[in-house]
Structures are given as C-alpha cells and as structure tokens.
Specification:
globular, alpha/beta
C-alpha cells in the first residue's frame, strides 16, 4: 500500500469511539454454508494497526479490536528513513524515534506479529526519502553506504519490535516496473542486508512483499519475461508476502478473484502469506485522478470468501486485512496534498465509518472462530 507519510501522520495525531457490535442489514449475497466443510482453519487471521480516526482513543480502539478479532497483526513502517543519521552516526530524528517507541509500547505479546518495512518511496520508484526530504546519493542501490544504513535501520526496528515475521521491503516488484535499471542493484542490496540480519536473528522468517495486482497481467512490453524474473525472485524467499488490492485492476467477481489466486497458487513453491489486502465496500470516486471504481458490500464479501477459501485450501501462513474499519474520520484531517491518495483505501473496512459491521465482518468471524 502506498502511504507516503499517512501512517506517521495518523499515529502522531492520535485521537475516539469504539463500536464494533452494531449490525447493519445483510444483503442476500453470502453463502450460508461458506467454510462449513472445515472443522478448523489452518492459517492465522489479522489486521494492520491502521487507525480509523485521528484521536488517541481511536488508536486504542484499533488495538483493542485487533486483540479481540485476530490472532496475528501487523505494523507497517512505510515512511521516511533517517539515512543521514544512520550513515553519519547522528542522533535519530525525534519524530522517528518517538513514533517507533510509541508503536513498540503497544506490542501485543499474545498475538503473532508481522513487521513490514519499506525501503522504497511512495511510488516505489526509488529509495524512501530522509526526514529532510532528500534521497541519499548513490551509484547503485547496493552501494556499501546504503547497505550499512539500511542494515542499521532494520536492526533498530527489530530490536524495538521483536517480530515473528519480517517484510524487509514493501511491494518491491513495483521498483522493477517503474525503475528497471535499479532492479539488479536492489537484489544485491536486499540479499546482503538479509544475510547480515540472519546472522543476528537466524530463526527470523524474512520476506519482501509483492503487489499481486501489479504482477498478475503486468502492463509491460514483455510480460512473460517480467513475470518469470519476479517468480524466480519470490521463490527464493523464506515465505512469499503478497499485497493485493483487486479493485486496482477492476476485479470484482469471484471468478476474476479466483483467476488471480490460481496464477499465484500455480507458480509459487514457497509458503504464501497475504501481508496486506482489502476490497472496496463502497464506490470509489477520485475526480482529480479521473478515477471511478464500483464497490459494494457483496463484492467485498465475495473477495473475502475467495481469499479465505484459498488460504485454507493452499495452506497460506496468514491473512492480514489492511484496515479493520473505514477511516473517514482520519481522512477528514489528512493534508490536502495526500487526501486524494488516502481516499483510495478509505472504504475497505470490515466495519463502516460508524463502526457498523458489514457482511464481511460476519464472514471474518465465522472463519476466525473455527
């Protein structure tokens, strides 16, 4: 998910209202026998800690919801990287250290925990910016100065969070799409950093996330070559981490969802985990992007049913839904320059903006309680 600095903004604003028990009328679009053939589930289910509102109580409510309705959860560190501090042994920016300390203080020890960290900027075309908005100079992404700094960055976050699983870079296939000349340097960089981390944390499962919507039928001149290169890269990971937002490719029916899953299941030989995913429950309109995508409660539930069925049948490790609740309240206070971007995922919660349960919440609970 491309967040620019929305996560930092949301966390630092902090602010409440918890309501996950009000039920809206269900549309007649679910299978009452869904998942009934299974006596238990074989995978973990959870959410990211993306909050639905700007108040401290909203953040607390989000963690409480996760504690009640999940057995795994994820923190995303998808923002700026203090490159200069790491490279020159300077004090870390207080904004960065406070954010990490604040999130780490909420670590739930009764849940499995995924940490996802972005090496790349919001467009996934280059390194993430430093806190002065600059990108460090380099000849190739695997320059030793970049490697050493990113190693320190990851080590700092691992020491703070002690995760069970690490996504060491987010949606990396998009770098190959947007900046193909950087891809070989990236692969050398990330392999070197992973090797060094493994020396310290030999049992930590490490992956790099792939956006399935930009791997499945990619818009490139030679899609077969691109796909094969990415699949080879993916099948050398400890586990394969998938980011998937089907609505970005206008997928809105079970057969279309399943075709994407079949592509994944047929080509991956490593364990699969969905580290972030969601589907629209309402129409999405962003005039400045000339974008309109239809969405509905039924469509969202169809996707969730398809996702959970594949997780069971193909032994996925876990499934992480992006936002448990629509974040209209948070979106209202976004800075104007990120409001259009932030709107893209706003209406994908299992709860609507008022905390009312959608049909997908019922589906989630049915499987969670297996």
């Amino acid at each position: 998910m491309k967040i620019i600095e929305l996560y930092v903004f949301a966390f630092l604003l902090l602010i409440g209202c918890s309501q996950d028990d009000a039920i809206v009328s269900e549309e007649n679009c679910s299978d009452n026998n869904f998942f009934s053939e299974y006596s238990s589930r074989s995978f973990k289910m959870g959410f990211t800690t993306w909050t639905y509102g700007p108040k401290s109580q909203n953040v607390e409510d989000t963690y409480q919801f996760i504690n009640k309705h999940a057995d795994i959860y994820a923190e995303h560190v998808d923002n700026k990287i203090p490159w200069s501090a790491w490279m020159h042994d300077l004090p870390l920016p207080i904004e960065f250290s406070n954010e990490i300390a604040g999130r780490a203080s909420k670590r739930m020890t009764n849940k499995e925990f995924l940490l996802s960290v972005s090496l790349l900027n919001s467009n996934r075309s280059d390194l993430a910016e430093d806190f002065d908005e600059e990108v460090p100079n380099y000849i190739s992404l695997n320059d030793i100065a970049i490697e050493n700094a990113y190693f320190k960055h990851i080590q700092y976050l691992l020491d703070a969070f002690t995760p069970d699983y690490l996504v060491i870079a987010i949606e990396v296939n998009e770098l190959k799409l947007r900046s193909p000349d950087k891809w070989e340097g990236y692969k050398l960089l990330i392999q070197n950093v992973k090797s060094r981390i493994k020396e310290i944390y030999p049992n930590l499962k490490i992956s790099e996330s792939i956006s399935l919507h930009n791997l499945y039928k990619p818009d490139v001149a030679h899609p077969g070559d691109h796909i094969n290169d990415m699949l080879s890269h993916m099948n050398n990971m400890d586990f394969v981490s998938i980011s998937f937002y089907p609505f970005f490719k206008m997928l809105d029916t079970k057969p279309e969802f399943q075709e994407a899953f079949d592509f994944l299941n047929d080509h991956i030989t490593r364990p699969i985990a969905f580290v972030e995913t969601a589907q629209l429950a309402e129409n999405l309109s962003v005039p400045n992007f000339d974008l309109f995508i239809k969405g509905s409660i039924c469509e969202q539930n169809s996707y969730l049913e398809t996702l959970l069925t594949n997780a069971q049948m193909h032994n996925y490790m876990f499934v992480i839904w992006w936002a448990h609740r629509d974040y209209d309240a948070l979106w209202q206070v976004f800075p104007d320059d990120v409001k259009d971007l932030g709107k893209l995922w706003k209406d994908t919660g299992l709860l609507d903006e008022n905390g009312h349960q959608r049909l997908s919440f019922t589906t989630w609970e049915k499987v969670l309680n297996k």
